[in-house]
């Protein structure tokens, strides 16, 4: 085995099960990859594939790879959580940035930028929607103008009614009939009624009623 100090993947994985990132050297992944490659090279140099040494190296290689993959997975989840909290402004300080490797810091910065941009776009949509809703609630014309318009409409309605209806006094009893407005009328002599112009004029022409002029 080489004289370079070896990495104990199992110890790192044990500590990595905690909530905090385990502080690692900036070039940890480079050294870890080199150590695994050394084990692979050493394994290929052993001629007796059924010997004890070969079995030990193979077991160490398998254990190192599995632990290494678990370390990457656990640290990746923690970095994603860190970036998410930072992007949402729930965490002001960079808690574990100093514990990251060179590759992890680059990943964290890209992830933070992406999450911040994404969150900003979503919040902007909500903000624009709120502004549009507020604009819709603003009257398109002054209140006075609307009131004047309503008054004008009411006046026009009154004018139309005075043109379409006539006040009459009955000179004789009139059998029940359906007026031009769709209503049923049963009128007796001396009754005063407001009838549609069509019906009123018909009764007046038959000397069955006389018009009453309403002064304004």
Walk me through the structure.
- This protein has 216 residues and is mostly helical.
- It has 2 domains: 9-132, Up-down Bundle (Methane Monooxygenase Hydroxylase, Chain G, domain 1), CATH 1.20.58; 156-211, Ribosomal Protein L9, domain 1, CATH 3.40.5.
- Helix content is 60%, strand content 11%.
- It is built from 6 helices and 5 strands; from the N terminus they run H-H-H-H-H-E-E-E-E-H-E.
- The chain has helices at residues 9-16, 28-45, 52-87, 102-137, 143-164, 197-205, and strands spanning 165-170, 174-178, 184-187, 192-196, 209-211.
- Strands 4-1-5 form a 3-stranded antiparallel sheet. A two-stranded antiparallel ribbon has the order 2-3.
- Strand 2 (174-178) and strand 3 form a beta hairpin.
- Helix 2 runs antiparallel to helix 3.
- The longest helix is centred in the first third of the chain and has 36 residues, at 52-87.
- The termini are far apart.
Offer a concise description of the structure.
This protein is mainly alpha-helical and 216 residues long.
Topology at a glance:
Blueprint: H1 9-16, H2 28-45, H3 52-87, H4 102-137, H5 143-164, E1 165-170, E2 174-178, E3 184-187, E4 192-196, H6 197-205, E5 209-211
Antiparallel strand pairs: 1-4, 1-5, 2-3
């Amino acid at each position: 085995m080489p004289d370079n100090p070896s990495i104990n993947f199992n110890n790192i994985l044990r500590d990595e099960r905690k909530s905090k990132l385990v502080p690692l050297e900036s070039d940890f992944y480079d050294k870890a990859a080199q150590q695994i490659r050394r084990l692979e090279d050493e394994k290929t140099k052993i001629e007796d594939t059924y010997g004890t040494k070969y079995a030990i190296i193979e077991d160490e290689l398998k254990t190192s790879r599995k632990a290494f993959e678990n370390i990457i997975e656990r640290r990746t989840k923690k970095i994603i959580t860190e970036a998410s909290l930072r992007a949402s402004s729930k965490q002001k300080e960079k808690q574990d940035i100093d514990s990251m490797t060179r590759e992890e810091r680059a990943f964290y910065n890209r992830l933070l930028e992406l999450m911040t941009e994404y969150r900003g776009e979503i919040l902007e949509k909500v903000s624009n929607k709120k502004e549009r809703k507020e604009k819709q609630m603003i009257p398109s014309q002054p209140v006075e103008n609307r009131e004047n318009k309503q008054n004008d409409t009411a006046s026009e309605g009154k004018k139309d009614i005075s043109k379409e209806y006539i006040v009459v006094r009955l000179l004789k009893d009139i059998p029940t009939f359906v007026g031009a407005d769709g209503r049923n009328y049963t009128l007796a002599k001396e009754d005063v009624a407001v009838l549609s112009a069509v019906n009123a004029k018909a009764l007046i022409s038959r000397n069955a009623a006389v018009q009453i002029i309403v002064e304004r």
